[in-house]
Design brief:
83 residues; 2 domains; alpha+beta; two-stranded antiparallel ribbon
Length: 83
């Protein structure tokens, strides 16, 4: 390879994700997979303690949803417009 470059491997992982009714494909080539998996392994440690416990996570999600519903209801009450 010119300039001392190493050839890229053709082995890769492909993930298909539906986004807004379209299929998106994400390709990760083998030379970056190790870094990606190391990053994935650190994600859990980045969450606040409440998000590590599934039961607490459900409670936090429910509280967040309740706040969103209350805010939307207050907005509709002020404007008189139902969305």
């Amino acid at each position: 390879m010119p300039n001392g470059e190493t050839p890229k491997t053709r082995y890769h992982a492909e993930v298909k994700i539906p986004i807004d009714g379209h299929e998106a494909r994400v390709n990760c080539f083998a030379d970056t997979l190790t870094e990606i998996f190391q990053d994935i392994g650190t994600i859990c440690s980045q969450f606040p303690p409440d998000w590590k416990n599934p039961a607490k996570r459900e409670i936090v999600n429910a509280e967040l949803k309740a706040q969103q519903v209350a805010a939307k209801a207050a907005e509709e009450e002020q404007t008189g417009e139902v969305t």
